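Appendix B, example 12.
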Amino acid sequence: MFDNICRNVNAPVFPLASATEGEPVYITSIHGGCKLRERLLSMGINIDDKIIVLQRRGHGAVLIAKDNNRYMLGGGMAQKIQVSSER
């Protein structure tokens, strides 16, 4: 019953900026202030969301996909978003 909300606590967590292209990841936490959280929330991005890294750019910037939408996040933002490859 609770399988869809339980996370594997042993799964490695790393910054989104370090994720591999084509890799689906789950957002585990956001280490930023209110402005960052509001910005991500306005894009529909939140903790426990599954996103796919489409492309990595210089300085940690990433192009991600969530559902049918694509978003470009700067390196600073991508460093503050912690992800895991397992839920």
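The radius of gyration is 12 Å. Confidence is low (pLDDT under 50) at residues 1-5.
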